Amino acid sequence: MITPGIIMIALLLMATTGYYLGVRRSVAAAGGRRLIRNLHSRPTYYGLLTALWCGLPAVTVFSLWQFFDTQVVAHLVISQLPAEIENLEPSHISLLLNDIRNVIARQGSLERIDPALQAAAEHYLHLQRISNTALFVTIMALSMSALVVVRSRINKGLRARNHVEGIVKGLLAVCSTIAVFTTIGIVISVLYESLRFFQAVPVTEFLFGLKWSPQMAIRSDQVGSSGAFGAVPVFAGTLLISGIAMCVSVPIGLMAAIYLSEYAGKTFRAIAKPLMEILAGVPTVVYGFFAALVVAPVIRSLGVTLGLDVASESALAAGLVMGIMIIPFVSSLSDDMINAVPQSLRDGAYSLGATRSETVKHVLLPAALPGIVGGVLLAVSRAIGETMIVVMAAGLTANLTLNPFKTVTTVTVQIVTLLVGDQEFDSPKTLAAFALGLLLFVVTLVLNVIALYVVRRYREQYE
Amino acid sequence: MQITFVQPYPAIQQEDRVKYQPSNKGEHLTHSLPEPDEDKPGSGTVGKPFLDDPRITCRHVNVYYGVKHAILDVSLDIGRNEVIAMIGPSGCGKSTFIRCLNRMNDTIDGCRIEGEIKLDGTDIYAKNVDVVPLRAQIGMVFQKPNPFPKSIFDNVAYGPKIHGLAGNRAELEEIVETSLKKAGLWEEVKDRLNQSGTGLSGGQQQRLCIARTIAVGPEVILMDEPCSALDPIATAKIEELMGELRQQYSIVIVTHSMQQAARVSQRTAYFHMGDLIEVGLTPQVFTMPRHQLTQDYITGRFG
């Protein structure tokens, strides 16, 4: 039986054959091994050109076929089924299809199976076989004809290298667009679900509402609050915790970077830098333990001795630990950037009688500013996106407060709690997660744009 | 602009030449010339390394980079209001030597300096000497123009600011203006002092660096191949400038261009593999070198 795997292997063999035939043909066209220099390109390029023409169009047809084949086969199977099934709702039909596929997968099991279903399954299999054979024939024909055509075109003057380079350039372009399209896809899907949310909850209420309490009745017979979807407390919590984290990580990270790049000896630097980078590799759950079991109790007991009212889960604990976590992002990037400032600028400053600290403050930091801001931005996005530490150390209650000793919650934590467990994807409670995600995306984007503007405005560019 | 071309070298008497032997510490060259005196320090050097009224005196200076012995027992005086040129093949230690004069070698790991260097009678390597005021006294201009990525004004104002030379904004502006005028750059940049210093042409950048150095009020200016990255017109401007600056400062210039050394300097010192081979008045060194190596170098036999 012909499976897609076999087709791919056959195609690979075709391409390999194409390569060797192309090389041989080009050598023959040149008039023998010794006269290869008469060719426009090296024989390898003729081989590659043949192989690519053998492979690429066939692969394209293969993927398109695979994409549509399932739908066509399913449609044909359904149309064969009794008429009353055809009139069912789409969701029921897809369930039925699943049943048919299960029957195929469980062939030979002792379970009793509805004969109609069994017949449908056999029909399905039959169609699939036909489809695969047809695909095999088509692809082989395509590949072979491409081979024959390209091979017949090979002569001394064929600019095989330029053709191959063109094709490779195209492949590179396709790869680069994948990331772009994925981003666009994510945005569109989040946007779509958010729009559904905003049909249930007004945008203004979401953006400016001061109460966040997403619990609401899922079934009509359930008793529950009607839900309040004001995003302000959640974002305030995110900003509070990120702010505390940045207050910890930026000064410590930057000063560590300055020490490592300008003051520390070579050996110390060689040991300390990798160690700091290990800090970035610790799983955030572990930081979460640390925050919840060590830092939060310490802060609480400290607060109690000072006569302050500290919750057992506080924004301060989560923020402090998060700050420690992102120190490496700031320090490592800043350190690299300070090191990248040319030695000639340091020499210039020292030769004027500047001290080390004056050189760092007036010459190195301004010159390294773009990179430092880049590191800080990366740290900010890590802080905003961080979930685990907050879940474990800051709590789940959405408090609108600036008091770091209170328990707060963040956007990411709310998204997690909204989507964990059995959910219904048409209730505002679940859809709220997408709206939060969208808003978070917009906020980070705005922060990035602002930072880019700041960098462009204040940087001191060296050559 | 005065440009003196080197005259064709007159025939040099063979007996005047001195055969080269690397002088390690304590081991001196054997030669038949009456001077310098064998008993005096630095007598491994041919010619007149010492002056009556020097600004900087260097005695038995040795520099090591780790285990590499980069400067071998160099003794040399640098006079007032003179331009002294350091010439020699690449890697001979000229730059290393002048970087000792303002202790720029301090910033290099593994660099060790022995011997005595005195500025106006004070040992600059003494324990209680602070390098910050020292470097303000002995300014330096580098091979590649290295203006700070700041405005033209801030580039020149930086030194006076960190040393607190100006009491207020008006004084600072005055220092900047006079420094730029002395560096011959004022007319070209007076309308765009707020633009970035890195936007200037190579020659202008180098003159900006000179202005920056002058602004601190140094006594000696070290120039490490200041024109090697510049075109002939910019080079001519800087050479002319050196002639003017000599009225006020001592200038030590390292150069690979012997024509340049001949044009701008009063004295010339020839280095070879870390050894100071010959020092003398520039016309004498270029027309009647006493040492075989100097002769070989200036006639282009190597280097």
Structure in words:
The complex is a heterodimer of chains A (463) and B (303). By secondary structure, chain A is an all-alpha fold. Chain A has two domains: 4-158, no CATH class; 227-462, MetI-like fold. Chain A contains 16 helices and two strands. In chain A, α1 (4-30) runs parallel beside α5. Chain A is flat. With 303 residues, chain B is an alpha/beta fold. In chain B, 31% of the residues lie in helices and 23% in strands. Chain B has ten helices and eleven strands. Chain B has helices at 94-101, 131-137, 152-163, 169-182, 186-189, 202-215, 232-245, 258-264, 282-287, 292-298; strands at residues 46-47, 54-65, 68-79, 83-87, 111-119, 122-123, 138-141, 220-224, 250-254, 267-272, 275-281. In chain B, the strands form two sheets. Chain B has a seven-stranded mixed beta sheet, sandwiched between helices. Chain B has a four-stranded antiparallel beta sheet with strand order 3-2-5-6, with helices on one face. The radius of gyration of chain B is 20 Å and the shape is globular. Classes of the chains: A mainly alpha (463), B alpha/beta (303).
What is the gist of this entry?
Chain A is mainly α.
Structural descriptors:
heterodimer, A: 463 residues, mainly alpha, MetI-like fold, 2 domains, two-stranded antiparallel sheet, flat, B: 303 residues, alpha/beta, four-stranded antiparallel beta sheet, 10 helices, 11 strands
Could you outline the blueprint of secondary structure elements for this entry?
The complex is a heterodimer of chains A (463) and B (303).
Chain A: H1 4-30, H2 43-80, H3 83-86, H4 90-105, H5 115-153, H6 160-200, H7 203-208, E1 212-213, E2 228-229, H8 232-263, H9 266-281, H10 284-305, H11 315-340, H12 343-351, H13 356-385, H14 388-393, H15 411-419, H16 428-458
Antiparallel strand pairs in A: 1-2
Chain B: E1 46-47, E2 54-65, E3 68-79, E4 83-87, H1 94-101, E5 111-119, E6 122-123, H2 131-137, E7 138-141, H3 152-163, H4 169-182, H5 186-189, H6 202-215, E8 220-224, H7 232-245, E9 250-254, H8 258-264, E10 267-272, E11 275-281, H9 282-287, H10 292-298
Parallel strand pairs in B: 1-11, 4-9, 4-10, 7-8, 8-9
Antiparallel strand pairs in B: 2-3, 2-5, 5-6, 10-11
Helix pairs in contact in B: 3-4, 3-6, 4-6, 6-7
